[in-house]
């Protein structure tokens, strides 16, 4: 089983002709509410592709919490590890999108900030995936869970903050986009250079580093070399949630026994599929949908 220890957010997206300026009030031209949060997105992406997935996290005892639990469970994810907190609101992301697709996002963590080490339990973990929309304590507990269960630990340090020292030597695979890679290294890096990526992996001191490169696909870096999965040429409609689709798909394939290279190639196809459809979880394919789309 894949255990995702991560966030759930209600995404409230407002469409606007242009983004607001300081002190300004604008009328939205559209409003949509959807199930989101990086943990939930990654769990849904993996589950839709056929993986056995359990999500560990927290929502409020409010209507938004019920909506998120129902949406995630409908994709086949085991949500018995998602706790309901009577005293907290469900996490929310307020997203403004202008006519050019530029966005501005404010996240209110709500119940996500209450996930503690005690919440992080599972008796059947083979792969554990965690990210940074929950407290360090919970991420560290996820790594400990993996260690205790002889499972592999995948970290997606997003949104980036300093990686806790307690995670040193417990990460099997780190998945980052180009911005997170720069933040993690503290310097700019030329991701078109294999040498630069090999140095980055060595500095981050992880066995495997996977860097997503947007339309250019992704690179999987280990001590033995760099594998580049080319981007699939698509007409991108909405790339939000493409990174989470990629990460969920990568772990789904690793859990089914794929090599890192093959899983990375597969994940770029799922990321590209997500970029061609509006929304986040609503843009994630099942294996059948992906096959049909790839045959085009
Ligand atoms: P993030 O959304 O975290 O910034 P990326 O932009 O790197 O991450 O996108 C994640 C993955 O989604 C990429 O590795 C790629 O497979 C796919 N993807 C994203 N944007 C596009 C695009 N415009 N064309 C094709 N694939 C894309």
Automatic annotation (TrEMBL):
InterPro entries: Carboh/pur_kinase_PfkB_CS, PfkB_dom, Ribo/fructo_kinase, Ribokinase, Ribokinase-like. GO terms for biological process: D-ribose catabolic process. Signal peptide: none annotated. ATP binds at residues 177, 212-217, 243-244. K(+) binds at residues 238, 240, 274, 277, 279, 283. It catalyses: D-ribose + ATP = D-ribose 5-phosphate + ADP + H(+). It is found in: Cytoplasm. Requires a divalent cation, most likely magnesium in vivo, as an electrophilic catalyst to aid phosphoryl group transfer. It is the chelate of the metal and the nucleotide that is the actual substrate. It is an enzyme of class 2 (transferase). Substrate binds at residues 9-11, 37-41, 133, 244. Its cofactor is Mg(2+). GO terms for molecular function: ATP binding; metal ion binding; ribokinase activity. Its EC number is 2.7.1.15. Its main location: cytoplasm. Belongs to the carbohydrate kinase pfkB family. Homodimer. Catalyzes the phosphorylation of ribose at O-5 in a reaction requiring ATP and magnesium. The resulting D-ribose-5-phosphate can then be used either for sythesis of nucleotides, histidine, and tryptophan, or as a component of the pentose phosphate pathway. This is Ribokinase. It comes from Microbacterium saperdae. The lineage of its organism: Bacteria, Bacillati, Actinomycetota, Actinomycetes, Micrococcales. The gene is rbsK.
